[in-house]
């Protein structure tokens, strides 16, 4: 026991040293949130950066005009606002150009950080007390589960409700009301929406080949068969998306659900009252499988579905001649199209046709909801800015986004394609929000994605996969 | 230091040496308190400082290095105020104390809290007893995760140890020993995530005719059918992931075995050769027994490693396509599904699985006089 004390001591020494180094490292960069704290001009002393507590300056400022007005006057020059969201690559560029003008005018530096692993990371950051000032949730369901913990700032007292009512359709505002820790709160604001019932196709070649846009599901299947006979798989499908692999499959299921059963059933399904194991849901997956599991209908065969990133899936449509013809995806997918491809000429979309005429022409939409975690005047200003159409004007102009705000002018849409989209939403017999996005995160951003991936990749049988998805509700 | 502890002698001279002066007690307490207060204040200063982050980091490192030195220096000085026999007893604790405290705070406490959480429901509000444990063992996902973990442990460890040993023996006799060993050891320097990215390019599959993934390029060159190696080839995709671990850990095993083999005395080998033993017999009869302790250590190290495997699976497949292991399942449940009960339970199961291996390792260390 007592041998080699010298060695033991030196070992202990090294251990201690390394640990202390680690500790001091922790001490050094601890709580970057506070480091970003700045004194607003009116401040007598820096407010304690406590979440969900309005600092006195903010309420004072509210008297002198809204945070956005003050920001435009340059009140918050030199401050920083951190943002975290799922936009990466092309989307991130578009987002950053849409806020550029605001940053120049106000002097507020919006530091946006995008991550493909957003769904998992945001939870960790919020739990660890390292939440960004503003987070952009593509799934309201995920925000709802975080709102329950009481860590999201209630926007009811932060933003002018009258202005919001004037600028948003009521259903959008209803969807931003969620359960907080003690009662209902307004957990976020909607900034961009997209339409998810669109089948993209290479228009020019499509017309040249003499195909016509299908009006019913049966027409579409017949056309799929026709294209297969002509030597091409009609569909190109990719659901790979890092840790979020599988989400693209949920859009298919939601679209087919709306076309094969009543909107009431759809709502029940989203709330968890209609289980995944029910015949309605199973039938929807089976309808989808008729395309997905047929290797003559899918570019690269079924095995390519889970290995192809959703953003890479459209690529074969833009080869000459096209190697595949159809890609079902929300309108944001145009960000991933080749830059040389022209909207309305090279590519266009047709509405995913109805299956059962009695359910009319349902349209599936989705959107991003921005939530606020740290209440500082400059963050309020940025949040208020995001409630204006102005905040996504450049994005709308570059295509791929539908603005949910009423003050976004239809003239901003630069293509026939986008205008048709806005019209499609207006004329829809049934308008429903993306179901998986509304479900609690553990299902909608959890078991639903994984279950679909398991089913398509052959890990689980259909019944087993549906059971697995449903089990997400129970835990 | 093997002196036996003497029975308490009763002669007065020794008694005088044994008295503890009040001054010493006060001094040592004062030193202890001063250390806590001063370092606490510095910590608070850094935590709330609005300095430039880079400057903060530099100062913090300085504080870390100098602070540690000062803490040890002052505490040692305080202990030296006591009579000899006490000093001998206390000094080791002064040195090991901070490490124990920090380990307790950063490892033991969280482990206990995880254990506590594992008895509660998903939102940690309701006590549910052992039902989380029952649930994860009846859940088929857990079965998959355990099966895959066992695959990793057996296939991964066995391959690493065998290849490591083989290469070490072969390299020992070759004239390219240094170069060969360096090349095989190199992957050790790459982080698992980076290795995952590298191997993604090897296994890459894309629909269509053109294959840019290395493996598929080779397969199609010989007229084969390209495969989605890591996703659709279940359950073989697990082996393709394990290959990454082998690629990385073989070098580690090899280097340690190499050193051990060089320690086998030449005269024994000579004697065996004179007695007419063949090389194979020498290897199994002399070398293996001689380095058995090393083999055990390396094996247990890699077993612990494979039990905890996470990054490779996360980067390559995210645990999809039936490649789930316990650690990825834990991450999924805890951070993605926000089921703190299941997540903590999985973490505890993993801890329990690793414990026996750690214990074997400790026993081994003790035999070798490490403790």
UniProtKB/TrEMBL annotation, chain A:
Instruction: Write out the ranges of the annotated region (Disordered).
Output: 32-66
| SUPFAM superfamilies reported for this sequence | Periplasmic binding protein-like II
Q: Which UniProt keywords apply?
A: Signal, Transport
Signal peptide annotation: 1-24
Alphabetized InterPro entries for the sequence? Bact_solute-bd_prot1
Source organism's superkingdom? Bacteria
> Which PANTHER family does the record cross-reference, listed alphabetically?
ARABINOSE-BINDING PROTEIN-RELATED, OSMOPROTECTIVE COMPOUNDS-BINDING PROTEIN GGTB
The family this protein is said to belong to: Belongs to the bacterial solute-binding protein 1 family.
The molecule here is called: ABC transporter substrate-binding protein
Question: What taxonomic lineage is listed for the species of origin?
Answer: Bacteria, Bacillati, Bacillota, Bacilli, Bacillales
